[in-house]
Every structure is written in C-alpha cells, then in structure tokens.
Amino acid sequence: MTMQEFFAMGGYAFYVWTSYGLTLIVLLVNIIIPVVQRRQFLRSLALKHKRQ
Amino acid sequence: MFLIPDPVVRFFHRMASPPHFYAFTQRLMPWLTVIFVLVTAAGLYGGLYLAPADYQQGDSYRIIYIHVPSAWMSLFIYVVMAVAGAIGLVWRIKLAEIVAISSAPVGASFTFIALVTGSLWGKPMWGTWWVWDARLTSELILLFLYLGVIGLYGAIDDKRTASRAVAILALVGVVNIPIIHYSVEWWNTLHQGPTVTKMDKPSIHVSMLIPLLLMAVSFKFYYLIALLQRARTELLLRERNAQWVKNMISEFK
Q1: B58 touches chain A (CB under 8 A)
Q2: How many CB atoms lie within 10 A of CB B94?
Q3: Helix (H) or strand (E) holding A26
Q4: In terms of pTM, does the model score above 0.90?
Q5: Residues of B with CB below 8 A from A50's CB?
Q6: What is the DSSP string of B86-130?
Q7: B50 by DSSP, 3-state: which?
Q8: Looking at residue B198, what is its pLDDT?
Q9: Do B211 and B41 form a contact (C-beta atoms < 8 A)?
Q10: How far is B70 from chain A (nearest CA, A)?
Q11: Residue B60 and residue A15: Cβ atoms within 8 Å?
C-alpha cells in the first residue's frame, strides 16, 4: 500500500479523516483547558501570597 | 468494612484527602500518559493500517475505531458520574463530588464525538447525516443530560449545594442508559445491532476486533487523564483557602 492509497481511504478520505481530526481536537482541548486554568489560578494565588 | 481487603480501604481513605490526592495524581500522570500513548499508537496502527477493508463498507468502516469506543465511554462515564454523585450525596465526600462534576465535560465530549463520527459514517453508508431513530435520539438526550449537569453546576454559587443538585439530576438521567443500550433491540432502527458484545460469538473478525478493543482501552486511559486534570483544577479552586494550598503556594515561588 502506498502513502497515497492510505490517505485516500478507498474514496472515503473526507469522512474518515474528518472523524479522526475532530476527535483529536476535542480530546486535546479537554486536556489543555484544565491545565491552563490550573496554571493561571496557581499564578494568581502566588501573586496574592507575595503581596500579603 | 466487610469483604473489602484492608489495603483497599486504606487506599480510598487516603485518596479522599485533598492534599494526598493532589500530590498522588501528579506523580501518576506521566505513567498514565505513557500507557495511553502506547495503547493508542498500537490501536491506530492496527485499525487504520493492518486491518483489511470491510467487504461491504470499504474503508469507511474505519470510523468504528473511534465511534464505538466513544459511544461506550459516553455511557461508562455517565454511570461513573452518577455513582460518584450518589457517594457524594450520601457520605458528603468532597472528592466524590469533584470526580462527578469533573467527569461531565469529558463525558459530554465523548457523546459529541460518538454523534458526529456516527453522522460522518452514516452519510456514505445510509445516505443521510441524521435520522430520528431510537439509538441516535437517546444518545442526543444523553448529550443534553451532560450539558444540563454542567449548566446546573455553573448556575449555583455554593459548590457543595451545586454538587448535590447535580447528583440528583445525574441519578434521574440514569434511566436513559439502558434505553440507549437496548434501543437497537427494542425498536426497529437504522442503526446496526451490536457486533462486539454478543455473548455467543462477536460478528467481527479478530484483525478488526483487536484494534477496536485497544482503542477502547486507550479511551479509558484518556478519560482517567482528562478526569484527573479537571479534578485537580477543581480541587484547587474549592480548597483555595485551605492550609495545604497555602503551603504549596509558598513553596511554589
């Protein structure tokens, strides 16, 4: 199987790769949001702590 | 406690303590990530490359490797959310409440993925993006239940009260779970029947079944990672005035 055949997915490339791409995005966002939120919160807490 | 071995009881006792949970999950994270990456790589390689095309559906069937595990997770996470909510409701364990509410966005995401990938699979195979049949409709209701839980939690300021309200909503919604599962048997639907969970013999070839099961394991690990990330953030927000958070902050700078 060539690379081209693999990405063509037997003519179903749009449906297959849209499914996988969308899944990747949703799963990544679910990790990034809480991690970024926690970092921001910790930073703001540390800042408040320093002022006191 | 009877029947449960002592080390297990002690493990859960310690995990219910916020500072211990926060530190322990931090140490656990790299291990979970490594296992997740390895299992996912094996599952995708098997599903997208090694497994042959389906004799009826061609390569379009490869959507199964994310569609079916996502649909399983959408049900599994709902049950975890409802059980954790019930534990929080009865024993007032703060960490059970946090596990319940932290599960909701992950469960909603998997429900969304199951619906969208199903649509993307349905278009070339059924000729339509959507039909109002029992399986699709009950899964859509599941998405609304998750969104309801997230919305209700956000609408109530006192998070302990919010957790109680959310637990009751989640428990009522459990009715929907068997309806989704049996919908393809109870009603005449366009959605195909089960191919894996038939007790006698699954009607799927082993070269397709193994990657499917690997992806199911991969999504379980993903859930654990995403759940713990959310839970750690939620725990910090709730415990911002606790001594252990203050100690951690003073070490932090």
Answers
A1: yes
A2: 18
A3: helix A13-51
A4: yes
A5: 253
A6: HHHHHH--HHHHHHHHHHHHHHHHHHHHHHHHHHHHHHHHHS-S-
A7: helix
A8: 56
A9: no
A10: 9
A11: yes
Q: In whole angstroms, how far apart are CA B50 and each of A6, B237, B244?
A: 11, 46, 50
8 Å CB contact of B59 and A35? no
Q: Is B101 on the interface with A (CB under 8 A)?
A: no
CA B239 from centroid of its chain's CA atoms: 25
Q: Structure tokens of B116? A: 């969208």
Beta carbons within 8 Å of B232's beta carbon, 6+ residues apart: A34, A38, B22, B25, B26
Q: Residues near B46 by Cβ (< 8 Å), separated by ≥ 6? A: B207, B210, B211, B214
Residue B79 CA: distances (Å) to CA of A4, B26, B73, B111: 42, 25, 10, 13
Q: Which residue has the tokens 């894996």?
A: B196
- The CA distances from residue B52 to B91, B172, B206, in Å, are 51, 43, 11
- pLDDT tens digits along B113-134: 999 999 999 999 989 999 998 9
HEC secondary structure over B124-179: HHHCCCCCCCHHHHHHHHHHHHHHHHHHHHHHCCCHHHHHHHHHHHHHHHCCHHHH
- Does residue B233 sit at the A interface (CB-CB below 8 Å)? yes
Percent of chain B with pLDDT strictly greater than 70: 95
For chain A, the C-alpha Rg in angstroms (whole number) is: 21
